[in-house]
Amino acid sequence: MTQEALKVVGQSVLRRDGMGHVTGKTIYVDDINFPDMLHLKMVRSPVPHAKIKGLDFSEAEKVPGFVRALTYQDVPKNVYTILCLIGVGPDEEPVLAEDKVLYKGEQIAAIVAETEEAAMEAVSKVRLDLEELPAVLDVEDALRPDAPILKDWGTNYFVYEGHHCRRVRFGDVEKAFEEADNIVEGRYQTSPIEHAPTETTGCVAKPEADGRVTVYTNTQALFFTLDNTALILQVPFQKLHFVGGTVGGGFGGKVDVIVEPIATLAAMKTGRPVKYKFTREEEMRVSSSRGAWRMYYKDGVMKDGRIIARKVTSYADAGAYNRHTPYAVTKHAANVAGPYRIPNVWIDGYCVYTNRQPGSAMRGFGVTPASFAIEVQMDKIAEAVGMDPWAVRFINAYRDGDIKPHQKVVEDATLIEVIQAAAELVGHELPEEFKKMKSSDREEV
Amino acid sequence: MASKIVSFTLNGRETEVIVKPLTTLQKLLREQLGLTATKAGCKQGGCGSCTVLVDGEPMMSCLLPVEDVEGQEVTTLEGLTQNGELHAIQETFYEKFAVQCGFCTPGMVMVAKALLDRNPRPGRAEIVEALTGNYCRCTGYEPIIQAVEEAARRTNGHGV
Lengths: 445, 160
What we know:
The complex is a heterodimer. In chain A, 24% of the residues lie in helices and 24% in strands.
């Protein structure tokens, strides 16, 4: 390509949507209203784990403006799992809870009313008959034999192709530990994090004259959401028209399919547009968070700084339901070695269910907790062998053509070049041998 | 309780509305008048996305009953663009990438307007101080601060 052909590369290009943002003309989902629009609010579980023995709408129905309630019996295919679209199963999350709830804030019944205020008032008048059950709130507690079992298939972990966890086996870690000069161990833990987008999750579903439903939504995953909604409602995909693309902050928090199926169902049942938008409190308390992780690392290290073995056991807290966590654990398992060449690696990565708010996608989910543990581990290794932390990273850096533990050949490694650039930026003088290193060729250390 | 008639100036126009007592200015603007530039990020005075100017002072419209603006002058982001001409703050927010998802932008622009009207040559610390009530999750604030600095320069310290 000639230099003249490059019109954007190297240029600062103004945002396509910037003019709408600075003039206030950008239309977000909550800016969409229709004259006959109804509002949907959710009856939620007040406890983390309970049996549902009964629901009583009689007082709620008396609230002026009440239109109707929806329960799981109204949902054509109530139990789903978002990642069924990429072959993850079995289905395990109800759109509306059936006989039990597994987390505080779980959706039990939808109330549709003429105004937002009426919907909220009616929600407050629904009587729940719940029998509270012991809750399990810690990943390792959830795997103990006496833990209450949350899933119908009889375990508190996701089953990966018949196995209790996602496993990677590469070389022989136990043998390498015997040969290692040092063993460096670490226990790492990350907390759940709320994405806290300025715009809360929401949608408006509008029945059209031709029998289709238009759904305006701030999802980050428009077609994923359309497909899941069609499967849940058991309607052909072309019956739904999803309109999106304007998201007031997402960061992974608007990837799950939560508000659209029930709002679309409510629109179909009432024949009127329906808005379902989270309050700030709902966004904080019930929207998926970044999942919490606990990771145990054990590394075998030689005096010269080389890592020759790594054994990792990781527990991802999925919360009550899958959402995107089974996939996060797979990504995690592929990345526990980090951008380093380690010839012997063993990992067991568990996707664990607890009675907590479901965790899901957020910026590198699965990989970010691993990176945190790995880089603290690298500093510990440097300390254990009495070497410069920069040197430990250069010595172990992966190069083009190396094999990663999950059997992928490394291409375009560039780690060495990135560390060199970082050293220059912070004014750290590197020894000549590291300045000369390249990702493209591996001279044995 | 009976609804009330409230008169005030909205973006330069005499306006009269009928509202139920304690209806917030945010709800009136967005739902009754269709002026949706003013956002509703939290409805509890925590995010600043609903900031409007009342007699030149920045106020969170989600906490403000409409009765309280009787006889006063209310300006929303829609009122900043005059005859199709962008205000200097709008220009610099656009050019300096002070917008990403855009949801905090209306509140940020209104707060900046109030600041520059009061203090045409603010220092960086004064800009940061003025923006502290407004939450942005995308930009890390730096481009917003730079956009306000540039808007002050562009108006050459003459206010905007």
